[in-house]
Amino acid sequence: MPSSTTSPSRAALLRSLALTTCLGLTLTACGGEPAAPGTTPSQASGESTAAPERAAADLVVWADAKRAAALEDVAQRFGEENGITVAVQTVSQDLQTNFVTANTAGNGPDVVVGAHDWIGNMVQNGAVDPLALPEAEQAQFTDIALQGVTYEGKVYGLPYAVETLALFRNTDLVPEQPATFDDVVATGLASGAENPLCLQQGQEGDAYHMQPLYTSAGGYLFGTTGTGGYVPGDLGVGAPGSVAAAQKVAELAQQGALKTSITGDNSISLFTEGRCAYLVSGPWATADVKTSGTPYALSPVPGFAGMAPAQPFTGVQAFYVASEGENKAFAESFVLDAAARPETMRALYEAEPRPSAMREVLAEQSAADPDTAVFAEAAAGGQILPALPQMAAVWEPLGKAYAAVINGADPAQTMTTTGETVRASLQ
User: Fold this and answer.
1) Which of 39, 182, 213, 356 sits most deeply, having the most CB atoms within 10 A of its CB?
2) DSSP string spanning 258-317?
């Protein structure tokens, strides 16, 4: 069944439920910015705000500001096609928390748009329903995107984009692409730049940005099943591979390649000012790098010589059907039909460029933009960011462990102790 059309059964049901022929688009600003990739609620800036009141419409969609703006035309078309009112509400802060709270209270949206690593928490809270995405339609999406929205063997979201980290290189300072991370450090040091590498850590550390190096050195967070799912009981923090990774972090810090003075606030600007030879960052950095006029090349983050490939976290953005939404039939059709159209995927890309989860659209994007092609390659070779609720116990202790090692703490003892801390909090 083509994704751009509504199935006869869904269309008939929607016509029977249609209440009016007009369309309402409501934008409710809540202030603030969405959390950066890889952050947890405790790491996101700003205080939690109350969920907005559900708009008076047959179908209500919640998204952040950029996604909401991109979905206005999509919502208008869907409303007109099905004779219903549709409201797209902007929730710019604490979207996941606000959604779960409002859904529990019975006054939330019918559809929510957000990151795949919310799924574990949303499922634990009974906030979203599995999505009936036929296998024939699943084939439209990349493997890594489908893996992200699959939790405990069930598909919970309609993926529309992926994101991950890659390596930006100042081509004036380093003309040749490095083959290994050892080459990154060596050529960065030889470049004469103030910093050979900008990989954000800060005084609290940053486990998300360190993940490519952690995996290359043999570290893992949670074990996996044969089908790629994560096993909460198999914690890799404190295991030998994580200790080896911490030892590599210590070596890089001693060489001056990793510094806690490189933070999320300054890493991109240091690179655009020519003060870093390399930058490890995501597609969110591309606009600033291009605007600055810095000559650059982009490539996947390489692994250490003689060690495993570097695997950054791959995140997936998706549409979800709320378990307590007022109109589940409308919601399911909006997600499976309207959201799954190539034109919707293109609109979301224009709003904030990320490699599309839809193969057809990704091929277009990659042909038109080499950076998108690189990020798609890096995402395909990355590790899906665990959607486990248990990840909440990992982010802060592991980040602090990295910061401590960079600042001179014993790597083996620090990582072993961190594993014990995380394991105790999971019990």
Assistant:
1) 356
2) --TT--TTTHHHHHHTT-EEEEEE-GGGHHHHHHHT--EEEEPPP--TTSPPP--EEEEE
CA distance 201 to 181: 17
* Distance of alpha carbon 152 from alpha carbon 366, whole angstroms: 31
143's tokens: 């493997």
Average pLDDT value for the chain: 89
The CA distance from 75 to 59, in Å, is 9
Crossing angle of the two packed helices 65-82 and 342-351, in degrees rounded to 10: 150
- Per the DSSP assignment, residues forming a β-bridge with 280 are 167
Predicted confidence at residue 49, as pLDDT, reads 63
Residue 84 in this model has a pLDDT that exceeds 50? yes
Paired tokens of 25 = 């688009």
Tokens of 179: 């083959």
H or E element in which residue 235 lies: strand 230-235
- DSSP per-residue string spanning 86-104: EEEEE--SSHHHHHHHHHH
Q: Is the pLDDT of residue 382 over 90?
A: yes
Dump pLDDT digits (tens) for 34-76: 344 433 333 333 444 677 899 999 999 999 999 999 999 999 9
Chain center to CA of 239: 26
Residues 270-300: b if buried by 16+ CB within 10 A, e if exposed: bbbebebbbbbbbbebbeebeeeebebbbeb
Q: Which residues contact 60 (CB under 8 A, 6 or more apart)?
A: 54, 86, 87, 89, 109, 110, 111, 325, 326
Rounded (10°) angle between helices 240-255 and 207-216: 110
Is residue 20 scored above 50 in pLDDT? no
For helices 240-255 and 395-406, the axis angle rounded to 10 degrees is 40
Confidence of residue 23 (pLDDT cuts 50, 70, 90): very low
| C-alpha span between 133 and 139 (Å, rounded) | 10
The two structure tokens encoding residue 378: 């890096």
What pLDDT, in 10s, does the model give residues 157-206?
Answer: 999 999 999 999 999 999 999 999 999 999 999 999 999 999 999 999 99
